Amino acid sequence: MHFPKLLGIASGLALSSSLAFAWSIDGVVKSKVSGRLLSGVKINTFNFGGYETTSGADGTFSLSGGTDALPTSKVANMAIHMEGGMLTIYNADANNLKVSVIDALGKVLAQSNPGHVQGIVTLNFGKLARGAKFIRINADSDRATYMVTSKGVKALKKEGDLLPMLQFALDGYANLAYQMQAEVETGVTIEMVRPSAVESSSSEAVEPPKSSSSVEPPKSSSSAGNDEPIVVDCSGKTAKVGDKQNMSVTVDGKQRTFIMHIPSAYKGDKPVPLVIDYHPIGGSGNGEFGSSPYKAKTDPEGVITLYPDGTSKPGGMGNGWNVGPCCSNDDDVKFSYAMIDKLKEIACIDPQRIYATGFSMGGGMSNHVACMMSDVFAAVAPAAMDLNKTNSAQCKMSRPISVINFRGTNDPVCKYQGGDSGFNDGLNFLGAEGTFKFWGEKNGCTGAPTKNSNGCDEYSNCQDGVKVVLCTKQGGGHDYGDASIGWPFLKQFTLPASFVK
């Protein structure tokens, strides 16, 4: 007979998600000069996908998200087991019980309110529970949230990730970034200013460089199908299976850190792909580990994933990437090379199947490495950020490279149409379609793009068999890409053996 494994909910197991604790903020937005209350200000999060609101007619706003702290009182006495869409709660005792199933971005997938309960409660959410990352339980006046993992249901514990960084945007005013300092902030006053005439003129959209620009197109390389595959010797590799392993490398005399995740499907007897997943501005490798949708797709295939930590610069907006003048002074391309070299030493990875992805500024970084590291990455899948004018002007590709970008037409952080970021940080984006055309030209694609089987725009007639894809979500905001499309796209491409060092 099979007995479900019970987990002591008060044990305080670690949470590996950027949604560690519930957070909330409210206040008012006004003009710094006139003091006029500003309505219609769009408020979004840089480092968490899917949270947004708009200030009211009186300038007030309120935004909240995340999950809750460790369970207490009645909820602490319960134990939870989940298998498929079936959730069982043991030691339940409440006059009013409410259970919610939540995905990684905080969206409620399904709810059940069985009312008065005592003893064992079984709830069948069925297909509605697909994508469940958290279970929230309200028992009378107590509430707690638990994380759903491949090893069972774990109680949450705060792990110290950064709190949300908010963007305030209103036409005619300079965008403003605000970093929360506490989990609950009330009565916050946000003061916005109008940019100077010079600054506002820079907000015009930037046309992508034409193929006749001074940037040389990449050299043609033989496709992976015409190269002999690289033989990888897996003996002597020391890396072991582990959920989150803290790693470091030294770059330019400075220690740089990242998380290495090796899933249970990794056996170490044959080379596996490697995916580097870059976090958003103000984020961390730990936060990206918990929030990225790619791990759920790559883990069953034994793929090793890395979650690097960016760095900040004085006066910046928190940890980010050196993809332009705004956010970091460190050489993140060199850091990426160093991480890959480290993994080649300790783990059995396939040097022809190394990929990059990322969200928000992490999407900007994965676009950037496609430019600067096409001799290492086989393909990239950025989300929610385009190439900027600085990036594209410096793009030095060694070979054609496959790229799939995920963008939302209503993204308020990195606008679909492109243009100045609004933060006076030197970032001026090509836009979603501009970036798509840029990659098409850089990869020698011919003919007009067509719709592929996923409904995405695709240049399929490109040099050396690469593809350039733009997946646009109509009405979509500042969100992660669709890993169910992104991962199958990435893994169909391999780096030509002639580029493997």
Describe this structure in words.
Strand 6 (86-102) and strand 7 form a beta hairpin. The chain is built from nine helices and 25 strands. With 501 residues, the chain is of the alpha+beta class.
Summarize this, please?
The protein has about 500 residues and is of the alpha+beta class. Helix content is about 15%, strand content about 35%. The radius of gyration is 24 Å and the shape is globular.
SSE blueprint:
Elements: E1 23-31, E2 42-45, E3 52-54, E4 60-65, H1 73-76, E5 79-83, E6 86-102, E7 108-124, E8 134-139, E9 142-149, E10 152-155, E11 165-169, E12 176-179, E13 184-192, H2 197-201, E14 242-251, E15 254-262, E16 272-278, H3 285-291, H4 295-298, E17 304-308, H5 332-346, E18 349-359, H6 361-372, E19 379-383, H7 389-393, E20 402-408, E21 419-420, E22 428-429, H8 432-442, E23 450-451, E24 457-459, E25 468-473, H9 483-491
Parallel strand pairs: 1-13, 16-17, 16-18, 18-19, 19-20, 20-25
Antiparallel strand pairs: 1-4, 2-3, 2-11, 5-6, 6-7, 6-8, 8-9, 9-10, 11-12, 14-15, 15-17, 21-22, 23-24, 24-25
